[in-house]
Amino acid sequence: MKNLFAVILLTLSGASFAQDTGQFEITKTNFKDLYNTYRFAAPKAVPWAGNFFPYADRGTAVKLDPAGDKKSGGRSPMESYALISGGSTEAEDWEKETHGCDGYDAATKKACKAWWGHCNGWAAAGIKEKEPRASRMIRGHEFSVADQKGILSELWLSSYSINAGITDKDVKTGPWVHEHDKPTESYNSFWDVSPRSFFLIFTNYVGALKTGIVIDRFTGDEVWNQPIVGYRLLPIRQGDIDEVRDGNRKYWSVKVRIKIYWANDVDIRHGHISKGFDIAKMKDSEDLDSLSADYDGRYLAFRLNFDSKVTVSSDGKKVLTAGKMVGDGIWEHQENSRDLSYDDLNHTHPDFIWLPTQSFQDVNGYGNPHINPAVVQKMIDGKESAPAKEPVQLRLSFAPRYFEGAATTPESAKKIVQSVIRRDGIKHSIYLKDIEISRNKVVVVVRFPLGVDSGSLVKLFNAAGMPLKLE
Question: What is the pTM assigned to this prediction?
Fold first, then answer.
């Protein structure tokens, strides 16, 4: 029940294991030290449970009462945002038009209503922002926990991030590969996060750095972003260690078992306040621990290979000797894929892993262009604020011939005009209801939340071969 994934990736140089750990910088690679020092770990600030504000409910434009329940007569988080951003309804108007399911065809609408939402925004906010746990009064208005969480989820809907694994799910993906001898056939098979990259990222980031990370826990086509609240590596048993001879080559293969835990957003009320999570109380068994509705988890197993002998203590909680890791390893369900159903495979290893670094109000149409980070920060600090610049609304008039080659509809006109404005990275919004099409002209109303220089805009469209008039 999640949204498509959209972030701006930061490339980091000098990373060990860069090929399979993506932009994550890995500084610790010694298996013995990582296992012994970070056998179980949790972020210093445990991410909070929340609601993913589904598109089926119009996202953060959903009406809520102070308790955070859906209520037609209540106020939406975006309406609340207007109360601290100068009274403009632009953020809510944009949310209603862009983050809803009504404008899609039947097949897409079904997926939209089933799982699209603000999961990546909530997951990033759960890691980067302190959980709102009480209502607060701002400018004489009560901002509920639900209001605050909705606004934060909208702020973080687009973000700079580092990641491992392929995040592009707009590309049509193929069926699961059921031949275990072709584990890396193509990314369409969703094997791109290897056991080695998984182990190194979890132990280096959640373990050593005590930071939250986000996983897409749905291994297949859908995206289910969840912020990790902890993991626990289970004891290594003597029977988990195999000496393998492959011709003249010898290596040691170790079965590694782990339980991972994440903050939940399934059936969580918008204004819910999270309960505590203590990784030290989780058990060293393969059975999933008894968890509150705020958290969920999964048991996974995989094999890592080493170039010299691996030995462990009698209780399996300490690694005594281990060589260097060689190869990417293999997931246990990858070895046994023929015995698992398609649905089983969809709920196995993470399809990708990412870490938000900074919120980014993009201009590609995904994030809400009317959310001002400075305004949100002042909401967090409990201070009054107003936008730094006055918004501008312009009526752009074009000759119909500039839209030839596409069916001249509000949708196509919006797409063409936006493609030009985005070349200069100008924050803007266009609503279908504000587009007028006639035989003599096409008029598109464009709103610029941070203002715009009209002369520069005219030059921009002239350079694109689309002269315009400002009405």
Answer: 0.81
Tokens coding 94: 């944009």
**Rounded Cα distance, 397 and 469, in Å:** 5
Helix (H, G, I), strand (E, B) or coil at 417: helix
Report percent pLDDT > 70 for the chain: 86
Residue-wise pLDDT for 396-408, tens only, equals: 988 888 877 656 7
Over residues 232-236, the mean pLDDT reads 98
Nearest to 402 by CA among 465, 326, 339, 328: 465
Residues 406-412: contacts with CB within 8 Å, 24+ apart?
408/437, 408/442, 409/437, 410/435, 410/437
Note the pLDDT tens digit of each residue in 71-117: 767 899 999 999 988 888 888 998 988 888 887 888 888 888 888 88
What residue spans of 341-396 are helical by DSSP H? 342-346, 373-381
State the alpha helices, DSSP H only, in 142-209. Answer: 145-155, 195-201
Closest Cα partner for 361 from 164, 94, 54, 169? 94
Helix-, strand-, coil-residue percentages of the chain, each rounded to 5: 30, 25, 50
CB-facing half-sphere around the CA of 13: CA atoms within 13 A: 0
The structure tokens 């048991």 sit at: 299
Phi and psi of 366, rounded to 5°?
-90, -50
Instruction: Label residue 322 exposed, middle or buried (CB < 10 Å: 0-12, 13-18, 19+).
Output: buried
pLDDT at 11: 31
Q: Tell me the average pLDDT of the chain.
A: 84
Q: For residue 6, which of 428, 265, 354, 422 has the smallest C-alpha distance?
A: 354
